[in-house]
Amino acid sequence: MKILFQGDSITDAGRDKTDPHNLSGYSLIVAETLKRKYPEKDFEFINLGISGNRSCDLVARYESDFKTIAPDITAIMIGINDVWHYYADTLKYVSPESYENNYGFILKNLKRDTNTKIIMMEPYLLPAPSFVHMRMDLYSIIERGRRLAETFADEYIPFDGLFAQACVHNPWQVLSNDGVHPALKGQQLIAEYLVKAIENQMR
User: Fold this and answer.
1) Number of neighbours of residue 46 by Cβ within 10 angstroms
2) d(CA 105, CA 108)
3) How many CB atoms lie within 10 A of CB 68?
4) Left if phi > 0, otherwise alpha if psi is -120 to 50, otherwise beta: which for 93?
5) CB 26 within 8 Å of CB 187
6) What Cα–Cα distance (Å) separates residue 100 from each residue in 21, 82, 143?
7) Share of the chain above pLDDT 90, in %
8) Nearest to 139 by CA among 152, 153, 122
9) In whole angstroms, what is the distance from residue 160 CA to residue 122 CA?
10) Does an H or E element contain 2, and which?
11) Is 129 exposed, middle or buried (0-12, 13-18, 19+ CB in 10 A)?
12) What is the DSSP string of 33-74?
């Protein structure tokens, strides 16, 4: 069973990019959990998350990093940089409409070109003061992602809400050092829900 992790720095997590089988962050936790729970399964885990990527970058990588790999399960988290880069560099701005078109291109073509099961993982922000100004922009792309999920997702994980729930009883700094990139506890939260979604698609 070939499982592909795709996205930005949250998925990249400092992996060795010379080796697509090198795992780090939540992808490593997911792989270790599944191998322990299902020792009889022949898993292949591939991480092609790239730090700084936006939805348009995934479109540019579609042929080589989605279609050619033809995974059994594809887990995607993308979108925070579509919002964040607007404030860091307006030349890299991706509008909510473009985000929906880009993500829709990936999802539609995955369904057409492969037999993969698609797990969409919602982008999120923790309540860090430095990111409060991005909240409404994030809502705009989350809503568009949810619309796409109705048509294309085999599983949808609402991580913005799940992280908000976790912050009720945990300071956000326990889950992330900056409000975006997950610390170990945040990685464990992502992995917990992603393992459940993968298990659903293994049945």
Assistant:
1) 19
2) 5
3) 10
4) beta
5) yes
6) 29, 11, 9
7) 92
8) 122
9) 6
10) strand 2-7
11) exposed
12) HHHHH-TTS--EEEE---TT--HHHHHHTHIIIIITT--SEE
Beta strands in 78-146 (DSSP E): 117-121
Can you say whether residue 79 is alpha, beta or left, with left for phi > 0 and alpha for psi between -120 and 50 degrees? left
- CB 117: neighbour CB atoms within 10 A? 20
Q: Nearest CA to 198 among 159, 155, 161, 160?
A: 155
CB 80 within 8 A of CB 10: yes
Continuous segment of H or E residues that includes residue 177: none
Q: What is the pLDDT, as a whole number, of residue 89?
A: 66
In the numeric block, which tokens belong to residue 138? 């994030």
Condensed to tens digits (0 to 9), the pLDDT of residues 109-162 reads: 999 999 999 999 999 999 999 888 899 999 999 999 999 999 999 999 999 999
Tokens 């291109």 map to which residue? 105
**Phi and psi of 46, rounded to 5°?**
-125, 125
If we measure between CA atoms, which residue out of 143, 138, 170, 165 comes closest to residue 156? Answer: 143
Instruction: Give me the phi and psi of 119, to 5 degrees please.
Output: -110, 110
Query: What pLDDT, in 10s, does the model give residues 79-97?
Result: 999 998 777 666 677 899 9
| For helices 184-202 and 159-166, angle between their N-to-C axes, nearest 10 degrees | 130
- Residues 2, 72: Cα–Cα separation, whole Å: 5
CA 75 remoteness from chain centre: 6
Contact between residue 151 and residue 104 where contact means Cβ atoms under 8 Å apart: no
